[in-house]
Write a structure and sequence with these properties.
heterodimer, A: mainly alpha, 2 domains, about 5% strand, disordered N terminus, B: alpha/beta, Rossmann fold, 3 domains, 17 helices, about 30% helix
Chain lengths: ~375, ~525
C-alpha cells in the first residue's frame, strides 16, 4: 500500500525521470484551449508521419487540403455546405452532453429528420405548387418532429426504466437507416432506383447561386439557407443553456445529479425533454441537408455526420458558439480530404484528434514533471 | 454477564504500547496502550473518530504507527502489510466485506493462498471449510456463490477466511452494524465458541448493550486517548461507560438569547423509512420542533439521522408515518413543494449534494430561487438580477471569492458552507434542517456557522440540528433528542452529557416517546 511507488516510473536508461502528480489547483482557463489547439497540431503531425510513410509529401498534402477547402470563395462555400450539418448535429450533441446524456443517436435522428422533411413533399402533405416559405416551414416542423420522436424513445426508456442511452440510441441508428431504405426502395422509389424523385424547386432551401441573376458574384455558390438556420440554432442553444430556467436545470443535473434532486429539479422529465430537443436539432440537420443539398431522399445522405458531430461537440468543449468554427474545420477535412484520398488519411486524422482529445483530459488533471537524475 | 474471573492468569496475546498515529490535521492515536489476553473478548469502545479503527488498522498491518511498539505472543513485530499481520496470527474483519460476488465460498477463502498449487481440488477444500465452519458453529454452504448469501452469511465467510489462515486473534470492526437482530445472536454464539477454542477477539463497537453482553473487558478511547484500559466489564455500569466514552468537558457557552418557543412548525409522527440498502433506518420516530427553538439530534453516525433529514426534506420516501410543516402535511411530496413551504436544508455532504461544483457561485446561490421573480422572468433567467443577488449574498455572508462567476469547487470548506448557508438562510425559512453543519471546518468558520444558526433561531425559525459534535449540540440546542437505531431514545433539556451518552449508545430514557415497534433488545 505504499503510495510513493505508484506515480513514479523508474526508467534507468534515461538521464531523467518522468513523474506524474495530480493537480491540486485547476489549470488556468486558457490552458484548456491551448491544449486543444496543441492536440490538433499533434494529430496533424502524426498524420504527416503516416503520409510520409505512405510515400507522400505531408507538406504538399496539407497545403493541398488548405487550398482545396479555403483557397477560393468557391471552395469555401463547399466547405461551409459540409460544415452546416456538422454544426447543427454538434449543437444537438452539445445540449445532450451538457446534461451528461450520451446521445450517440444523432445519426439516426438525422435520417429521421430527412425522412420527415421528405414526407412533406412525397406523401404529399403539401401540394407541389405551394409557396416556398410554406414548404420550408412545414419541412422544418416535420423534420424536427421526426427527429424529436427518435430522441424521445431512448429518453423515455432512460427516464422510466434506466435503459442505457448509449446502447439504445446506437441501435436506433440502424433502425433509422433501414426505415429510410424501406421508403426509398419500396414506396417513393423513382423508376426502380433507390432514391425518390427530385423535389420541386419551391421545396429547396434558397442557395446563394439562386440569386446569381441579381448578384453575379454568387454564381455557382451552393452554400444554402441552412447556414442561417445553424447560426440561429447556436444562438437558441446558447440562450437555452445560459439564459433560461430550463437550461439552468440542465446544467445543474449535468454537473451533479444529487444536487438537482436536492433542489427539486425533475431529472426524469428533463431527460426526456433534452433527448427530444437533441433529436429535433439532429432532425433539423437532416432536413437542411435534404432540402438544401440533396433535394431528394436517398440512401447515402450522410457520411457519418451524426458521429462526427460528437467529436465536434467535444472539441468545442460543449460551447454552442465554438461548435461553428470547429464544424468548419471538420467540414474542410471532409471536403478536401476527398481530394487526396476518398477515405483513409482524413478520417484517420479525425480519429487521432478524438483520441488525443480524450487523452488530453489526463493533462488537465495531472502535472507532468521531468527531473534530471540525482535531483531530489 | 459472563466475565471471566481469573483474567490475570491468562497469557498476554497482544501488547501495544505508546502507539502514536498522525493524519494530516488530526492526532488519531495519542500514546495508546492496549493489552489483549489470550482467550478473551475485548471490546474497544468509542465515538466516531475516537481512533478505534486507526488503532486496529495498525494492529492489522494496514497503517504504520508513527511511534510505539507491538508485541505479539512475546515477540516484537513490525507489520508492513496485512499479510505480515496474518502471518503473526492477526486477522481483521472489516465493515465492508472484501469478497468476489461471482465466486463460491471456497474459492473466496482460497483466494490469495499459495496452497492449491495448480489443480484446484475444490471438493477436498469444500469439505475442509465445511468442517471448520461446524467447529465454530457457523453454517455456510461452501459451494454457494457470494451474491446468493445474506449479509450475515457473508460475514461468516470473512470470519472463516481468517480462521482458515490460522488467525488466533480476530479484530471485528463494528460487526453488528450490518446485521439483523437474529444474526447478531448467531454471531455472538460464534464468538463465544471461538473464545472457548482459545482465540482472542477484539470487538469494535459503540453499542453499550452489545459490549456488555459479549465482552469480558473493555478499553475506551476518546479523541485518540485511552480513558479506560482493559476494564473488566463485571461491575461497570452503562452510565459509567457512557461517561468514559463521551467525556465530561467544561462546556463553553456561547451567548444565547432567551427565546420563547412559539407554535409547532415541524411535527413528525411515527415515521418509518428504509436506508439505501433497503433496511429499516427509521423505526417509528416522533417529535416536534417549534418556532424559535433549536432541537438537537444526537446520535452515532448511521442510526437514521441522514434518512430522517432526507424524509423531512422529501428526498427520501417514508414507508409509514407523517410529516407536517406549518400545519400542512408534506409526507412524500416532491422536494420543490417542501422548498416552497419554507423548508431549508443544509445537507451533510457539501460537495456532492449541497452544491454543483463546476457551476459558479451565482448558479449555486440561485439553486432554490431560480423560479421566482426577479431572478426568473418568464421562462428566462434574469442574469443581471441573479448576479446582483449573488453579489449581495457574497457581501452579506462574507463569502471570499474573487468574483461570483468563480466555480464553487475552488472554494474552501468554510466558504462553501457559507455559500450554502447564504442560499438556505436568505430564503427566510420557517424550518431549517442542518446536518453536520460544521464538519471539517476550522474554528473560525465553525463560530460563524453557530452565530448564523442562533440568528435564525432569534428570527423565529424552527431548527433541527443533526450533529455528531456533542459540544455543538449542547451549546446551541434548547432540547436534545437522542437517536439510536432509528428510534428516539429520549430528550435532554439541561445538557446532561451522561444522559446524552446513554441515549447514543442505546439506553432509553424514561421520557422517551413510546414507539409503535417493539425494541429488539
Amino acid at each position: 500500500m505504499s503510495e510513493s511507488t505508484l506515480n513514479q516510473r523508474k526508467s534507468n536508461w534515461l538521464p531523467f525521470t518522468v513523474e506524474v502528480e495530480p493537480r491540486l489547483t485547476p489549470p488556468p482557463a486558457w490552458f484548456s484551449w491551448a491544449l486543444t489547439i496543441g492536440l490538433i497540431i499533434f494529430a496533424l503531425l502524426i498524420g504527416a508521419l503516416v503520409i510520409a510513410f505512405a510515400g507522400g509529401n505531408p507538406w504538399a498534402a496539407y497545403s493541398h487540403i488548405a487550398r482545396a477547402s479555403f483557397g477560393s470563395i468557391g471552395v469555401l462555400s463547399d466547405t461551409l455546405v459540409k460544415a452546416i450539418p456538422l454544426m447543427i448535429v454538434g449543437l444537438a450533441c452539445t445540449i445532450a452532453f451538457r446534461m451528461r446524456i450520451w446521445n450517440i443517436g444523432a445519426e439516426g435522428q438525422f435520417f429521421l429528420g430527412a425522412f420527415g422533411a421528405s414526407a412533406v413533399v412525397l406523401t404529399p402533405i403539401l401540394p407541389s405548387d405551394s409557396p416556398q416559405w410554406l414548404f420550408i416551414l412545414t419541412m422544418l416542423i416535420f423534420g424536427m418532429a421526426a427527429g424529436a420522436i427518435w430522441g424521445f424513445i431512448p429518453g423515455y426508456l432512460k427516464a422510466k426504466f434506466n435503459v442505457n442511452e448509449v446502447i439504445s440510441t446506437l441501435m436506433l441508428n440502424y433502425i433509422a437507416v433501414s426505415w429510410n431504405n424501406y421508403w426509398i426502395y419500396a414506396v417513393w422509389t423513382e423508376g426502380g432506383f433507390q432514391m425518390s424523385r427530385m423535389f420541386p424547386r419551391n421545396a429547396w432551401l434558397p442557395r446563394l447561386t439562386d440569386f446569381a441573376d441579381r448578384v453575379p458574384a454568387f454564381g455557382g455558390l451552393t452554400v444554402h439557407f441552412g447556414l442561417v438556420l445553424a447560426i440561429l440554432a447556436a444562438i437558441v442553444v446558447w440562450l437555452i443553456l445560459y439564459r433560461s430556467q430550463w437550461g439552468y436545470e440542465i446544467r445543474v443535473v449535468g454537473d451533479n445529479p444529487p444536487t438537482a434532486r436536492y433542489a427539486g429539479i425533475p431529472i426524469a422529465r428533463n431527460t426526456v425533454l433534452v433527448m427530444m430537443l437533441s433529436g429535433a436539432l439532429a432532425g433539423l440537420a437532416g432536413m437542411s441537408e435534404i432540402s438544401g443539398v440533396v433535394h431528394r431522399l436517398q440512401g447515402a445522405i450522410s457520411p457519418g455526420y451524426g458521429y462526427t458531430g460528437i467529436i465536434v461537440a467535444w472539441l468545442a468543449k460543449l460551447n454552442p458558439f465554438a461548435v461553428i468554427p470547429v464544424a468548419i474545420f471538420f467540414g474542410a477535412l471532409i471536403l478536401a480530404g476527398r481530394e487526396i484520398q476518398p477515405s483513409g488519411i482524413p478520417k484517420m486524422i479525425q480519429g487521432i484528434i478524438l483520441v488525443c482529445l480524450i487523452a488530453s483530459d489526463f493533462l488537465m488533471r495531472n502535472k507532468i514533471r521531468i527531473r534530471r537524475k540525482g535531483e531530489a | 454477564m459472563e466475565a471471566v474471573q481469573n483474567s490475570q492468569e491468562k497469557p498476554i496475546a497482544v501488547q501495544m504500547s505508546g502507539i502514536v498515529k498522525h493524519f494530516p490535521g488530526v492526532l488519531a492515536n495519542d500514546h495508546v496502550d492496549f493489552t489483549l489476553l489470550k482467550g478473551e473478548i475485548h471490546a474497544l469502545l468509542g465515538e466516531n473518530g475516537a481512533g478505534k479503527s486507526t488503532l486496529m488498522n495498525i494492529l492489522a498491518g494496514l497503517y504504520h504507527p508513527d511511534a510505539g511498539t507491538i508485541v505479539v505472543n512475546g515477540k516484537i513485530c513490525h507489520f508492513n502489510s496485512p499479510r505480515d499481520a496474518i502471518h503473526a496470527g492477526i486477522g481483521m474483519i472489516h465493515q465492508h466485506f472484501m469478497l468476489v460476488p461471482s465466486m463460491t465460498v471456497t474459492e473466496n477463502i482460497l483466494l490469495g493462498l499459495e496452497e492449491p498449487r495448480f489443480r484446484l481440488r475444490l471438493p477436498y477444500y469444500d469439505e475442509q471449510i465445511s468442517a471448520l465452519g461446524e467447529r465454530f458453529g457457523m453454517k455456510v454452504d461452501p459451494k454457494a456463490r457470494i451474491w446468493q448469501l445474506s449479509v450475515g452469511e457473508q460475514q461468516r465467510v470473512e470470519i472463516l477466511k481468517m480462521l482458515y489462515r490460522g488467525a488466533e486473534i480476530l479484530i471485528m470492526d463494528e460487526p453488528t452494524a450490518v446485521l439483523a437482530p437474529a444474526e447478531v445472536e448467531e454471531l455472538f454464539h460464534t464468538l463465544r465458541r471461538m473464545r472457548e477454542e482459545g482465540k482472542s477477539i477484539i470487538f469494535i463497537s459503540h453499542k453499550l448493550n452489545e459490549v456488555t453482553s459479549i465482552a469480558d473487558r473493555v478499553t475506551v478511547l476518546r479523541r485518540g486517548k485511552v480513558t479506560a484500559a482493559g476494564l473488566p466489564l463485571a461491575g461497570v455500569s452503562r452510565a459509567e461507560l457512557a461517561r468514559l466514552m463521551v467525556g465530561r468537558e467544561v462546556v463553553f457557552n456561547i451567548q444565547k438569547k432567551p427565546v420563547q418557543p412559539g407554535e409547532v412548525v415541524l411535527k413528525v409522527e411515527n415515521l418509518h423509512a428504509l436506508n439505501d440498502r433497503g433496511l429499516p433506518a427509521l423505526r417509528g420516530v416522533s417529535f416536534e420542533v417549534r418556532r424559535g427553538e433549536i432541537v438537537g439530534l444526537a446520535g452515532v453516525a448511521g442510526n437514521g439521522q441522514r434518512e430522517l433529514a432526507e424524509v423531512i426534506t422529501c428526498m427520501r420516501k417514508a414507508e409509514k408515518g407523517h410529516v407536517w410543516v406549518g400545519g400542512e402535511e408534506i409526507t412524500n411530496c416532491n422536494v420543490s413543494k417542501g422548498i416552497r413551504k419554507g423548508v431549508a436544508h443544509i445537507p451533510e455532504d457539501r460537495n456532492h449534494v449541497g452544491t454543483a461544483p463546476n457551476l459558479s457561485v451565482t448558479d449555486n446561490v440561485i439553486l432554490k430561487k431560480y423560479k421566482e421573480p426577479p431572478i426568473a422572468s418568464g421562462w428566462m433567467l434574469n442574469h443581471v438580477a441573479a448576479t446582483g443577488y449573488a453579489e449581495d449574498l457574497k457581501k452579506g455572508f462574507e463569502i471570499l471569492v474573487p468574483t461570483v462567476e468563480t466555480p464553487v469547487r475552488l472554494l474552501s470548506g468554510g466558504n462553501l458552507q457559507r455559500v450554502i448557508l447564504a442560499r438556505e438562510i436568505s430564503a427566510q425559512p420557517q424550518l431549517l434542517i442542518a446536518v453536520q453543519p460544521t464538519r471539517g471546518l476550522d474554528v473560525g468558520a465553525i463560530e460563524g456557522v453557530h452565530r448564523l444558526l442562533l440568528a435564525q433561531r432569534e428570527a423565529g425559525a424552527a431548527i433541527l440540528l443533526i450533529s455528531e459534535e456533542l459540544e455543538e449540540l449542547i451549546d446551541l440546542s434548547d432540547r436534545i433528542l437522542g437517536i439510536y437505531e432509528g428510534q428516539i431514545m429520549g430528550e435532554v433539556t439541561d445538557g446532561n452529557i451522561e444522559a446524552i451518552g446513554l441515549m447514543m449508545t442505546g439506553t432509553r430514557l424514561e421520557n422517551a416517546p413510546v414507539s409503535q415497534e417493539a425494541h429488539h433488545e
